[in-house]
Amino acid sequence: MKEMKFIPTVVTYNTLLAGLGKEGRVKKAMDLFSSMKEVGCPPNTVTFNTFLDCLCKNGEVDLALEMFYKMTEMDCVPDVPTYNTIIYGLAKENRVSDAFWIFNQMRKLLFPDLVTLCTLRPVKVSRIDDAFRVAEDFFNHPQEHTNRTSMKVLIEGILIEVEIDQCIIFAENLLSSRMCQNDSILCPVIKSMCKHKKVHDAYHLFERFTMGYGIQPTLESYNALIDALLEANLTEIAWELFEEMKKDGCNPDIFTYNLLLDALGKSGRIDQLFELHEEMLSRECKPNTITYNILISGLVKSKSLDEARDLYYDLMSGDSIPSPCTYGPLIDGFSKAGRVEEAKQFFG
Fold it and tell me: What keywords are annotated for this sequence in UniProt (predicted)?
């Protein structure tokens, strides 16, 4: 660029610093940053943010702090991303007290954003109260309008860093303080508990949050819990939850019905399978290929091959597209019944 007599701008330097940071070339980035003032192109706040990000992500947090304190000397004012970057670096090294100190200095000048809140999430058990106070200040601030996404992102972040029990304490604090009155904090916790095979505990937590705190569960929460209950063979509870969701005005979707249809099909309860299918249709919930596959497989298992074939033709005449799971049971069922020629019709 210099050989072509082009003069680099601050944007050029910022781009180069970002690239060096991604490659972990800290020394080269330091040299480039130091050369800016010498060539008459002083760094701006974006430059500092880019350089600080490079340092923090490559284990040079103390150097990043030094540069952070020099910003005002070089006529640059730290902004929210500046503070977020430093807090991230400190939290990454488990320097929680330092991270909170920087956060408190930030609050004197600027209003933290959601990134700040989530960056402070690596709080250990001993700092869960501090984490709650940070969230309380954030969500109670006049500039912040609490929404489902903010709460969900916060809880998902905390679940990464602390044990589920600590996250539940944090979530209950949010509910008790009435900072959150929807299931944006319930759903991530339920999913995490189910993922760790704590399905019974997840169901009891669901009851506690919905009955004790008046949280109205969404379809996402119901589906996650019904799925886990069925997988854990807690079938009766899953069906009770299904009936409860309908009473509470939460309409099941195709995913909900497919979960329950599949459970009925696998247990050989064919009559109930088609009763549920009829209910689904009456609620104007359109079946998909998975639905047809479940029904066809159920019919084949009950030796109702003609009905299974008819349902296959219904599938073909509609918007759904057959899959290998559609053909497999039909071919197997007709072949075992000695109806080989009919089975051949389902090939290719």
Answer: Repeat
